[in-house]
Amino acid sequence: MMTRERTIRRLLDRLPAVRGRYREGTDLARTTWFRVGGPAEVLFRPADTEDLCAFLANRPRDVPVTVIGVGSNLLVRDGGVPGVVIRLGGEFATIDIDGTEVSAGAGALDGNVAHAAAVAGIAGLEFLAGIPGTIGGALRMNAGAYGREMSDVLVEAEAVGPDGARHVLTPTDMGMDYRHTGVPADIIFTGARLRGKPGVRTEIAHRIKEIQDARAATQPVRTRTGGSTFRNPGGRAADGTKAWQLIDAADCRGLLIGGARVSPQHCNFLINEGNATAADIEALGEEVRRRVLEQTGVMLEWEIRIIGVPLRGHRT
Q1: Mind listing the pLDDT tens digit for each residue in 47-100?
Q2: 201 is annotated as an active-site residue
Q3: More exposed terminus of the chain, fewer Cβ within 10 Å: N or C?
Q4: Across 142-187, where does the E strand assignment appear?
Q5: What is the CATH number of the domain that holds 35?
Q6: CA 91 to CA 105: how far, in whole Å?
Q7: Catalytic residue among 72, 103, 151, 228
């Protein structure tokens, strides 16, 4: 324990002064929807974009930096995350309306953006009500639901590079494709400008309710889960093959490893039954991938983001 405390102190001593807050040894399990995982060596909450830029410009280059949102589609390994974990909140969660455009910080919840647009009579952003997480995460993976995705509504995104320089990126710059962008992993999104269209408030609100009801009826939204686990292998392919269909065909529905289970309700969701470790969840996902490959010849790709290191002596 003393060795770890000395290591943390040395890291803090090496980090630049900020207006935000550093915290060492922060339990990340409380921030993820799976409720599993180890601590962040140091958690940094920047005060604003200028604070984030200054940190990145002046940080030691050998210190790893990881950015997280609300942890809705995230698995943190049990050994925790070395280096600095950045979590955007506060100033990064603002939502502003200008005509039929919505400007939202990367820390704004997707659902909150959908509802703010509805109140303003802006249609076209209702699909965000079906995506758990934040605008930053939605930008990173070109998130989508119910027939629409971020690339359909994005005007431009604001971001900060690893050197602290600011960037403005268009959808073309970002190389947006099915559940993917070509933006380097060390680029941190700070906000986005989204375009909708004039609509009738009551109709927009009704569509949002339809999306939320459909999600509640078909997905295990009230359990400890990380959202959709694997990308649909066909992307936008004409055959429309879904990951859950392949998982079901491989007889994985309800499959259990340790405290982790493939959801019987929707088998592209893994759930923590209450006592799972991150290693249980990752092992279950890998077993699903193995069985699907053996049964169908398709190697599923993780949609859930996995970060951190395993506990010593544990294999993933």
Answers
A1: 999 999 999 999 999 999 999 999 899 999 999 999 999 999 889 999 999 999
A2: no
A3: N
A4: 144-145, 148-149, 154-160, 166-169
A5: 3.30.43.10
A6: 8
A7: 228
Residues 263, 200 share a domain: no
Give yes or no: residues 115 and 142 share one domain: yes
Number of domains in the chain: 3
Cα-Cα end-to-end distance for the chain = 24
Give the amino acid at 9. Answer: R
> Tokens 């990173």 correspond to what residue?
140
Do 49 and 129 share a structural domain? no
Look at the block and give the residue holding tokens 């292998």: 233
Q: Which residues pair with 109 in a beta bridge?
A: 134
Residues 168 and 100 in one domain: yes
What is the token pair recorded at 202?
A: 């009551």
Which two tokens mark 301? 């790709």
In a domain, 71, yes or no: yes
Out of 148, 179, 193, 290, pick the active-site residue: 179
Does residue 179 have an active-site annotation?
A: yes
Is the pLDDT at 164 greater than 50? The verdict is: yes
For residue 246, the surrounding DSSP H or E stretch is helix 243-249
Examine the residue annotation and report whether 228 is marked as an active-site residue of this protein: yes
pTM of the full structure: 0.89
Are the beta carbons of 121 and 200 closer than 8 angstroms? yes
> Which residues constitute the domain of residue 252?
224-307
Find the DSSP H helices in 68-178.
Answer: 110-119, 135-141, 150-153, 171-174
Averaged pLDDT for residues 279-297: 97
Q: Same domain for 190 and 213?
A: yes
